[in-house]
Amino acid sequence: MTADELKSIIAAGLPCEHLELDGDGRHWSAVIVSAEFEGRRLIQRHQRVYATLGARMHTDEVHALSMKTFTPAEWATQPH
To answer: In CATH, what number is assigned to the domain containing residue 64?
Structure first.
């Protein structure tokens, strides 16, 4: 899977204001900014992203995904 493919899958299932991906085709790291993270704990945010990937996480199509998740307000305070 390419970064563009993975980005498209996540963006199709979760409205993102910002989405960065880096990885080698199986192991990925992501920075995801979405208003849907408002009021959600970290584990709930990650579960929401995993839900967009569905079976791809179980079939090893995406072996590992580390995430930094932010609300738009949190992202605005980050240095970038």
So the answer is: 3.30.300.90
